Give the backbone structure.
Amino acid sequence: MGSSIPPDLIKSLMALGLLESEAKIYIALVMMNNSEVKELIDFVGMSKPNTYESLRSLEEKGLIVAVSERPIVYQAVAPEIGLELLIDTHLRAKKEAAKLFATVDRNIREYPPDKMWFIFSEKNVDYKIRDMVRNAKREVIFLGSEKYLKFLKPLARKDLCLSLTVISEEPGLESALRKTFGTGGANVHVIKKSEAVKLLSISKTMSQEEFVPSFEKIFLQFNYDKMMILMVDDAEFLYVPPFFSDDPAAMNSKSRIMIENMKLVHSAMDSYFSRDRFAV
């Protein structure tokens, strides 16, 4: 046969829970409409035992059916249905796992309160932001790029103390954010990159103006499209530093000392907003 199985499609199905061999066979049957086992083995290039085991597993999952017995011929369930079956299986497994995790002893090893965790992948950072926002009860402080605003939308429906300082060049964003988040008296500011440089410089020097120019030279080199500081309920913070790298390493901590330090930085920034903004 002239057609080959797309490797990216195999990866997608593996991400949904299929083994590589199962993914190959399911895709092959979709492509061929139906097939005898011998023809299938030739097409996917797998061993006979591995092929039969994968066929058995796919049949149990409801992704293929035997449409003839002698010789045995298999047919794939339409991808639209097959993908829904896989997603439903994941959702059921998630619900069951959550139920079982509630029964697991999570105090086998107590970590010291100043323990820090480092999150390295962008996907993990996204999940952590969602988790912190979802569990916020009293206060959320955010300083960072507008790219993270999509994760903060649920806060508009929460009754809590909210402080947003967003780095963006987009005109009209501040009024839009006040309209979205301002009903609960949120403290909203939108600043440009140049303002962020000055603001961070002053917060680092705690208003010791003679050191500000030196810090500005350092902060000018940062990538503010990645930067984010998120603090929730005086209990946890997440920091994505504004470094130029493909992997946005983030620091997450529940350390009281670290949280208090970050609150001091935020206080210095907040007090600066009460002055004539960014006067030279």
The CA atoms of residues 41 and 51 lie 7 Å apart. The radius of gyration is 27 Å. The first strand starts at residue 34 and ends at 36. DSSP finds eleven helices and ten strands in the chain.
